[in-house]
Amino acid sequence: MDPEEVAEVHLELAEKYLGEGAELANRDPVQASEKLYKAAEEAVKAIANHFNPRRYSK
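-> structure tokens emitted (58 positions)
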């Protein structure tokens, strides 16, 4: 799979978890924090795949 496609998948997951975390914020803060952490994790993965260092080292 192309690194850009992988980055897009991670970005979509980050948006999904961000929305779920926002919905849970007032009802279940522990679950919300887990979703928001996952959103941040997926965003970092998206950035890492977008700026893939192996692509620039050739």
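The helical segments are 3-24, 29-50, 53-56.
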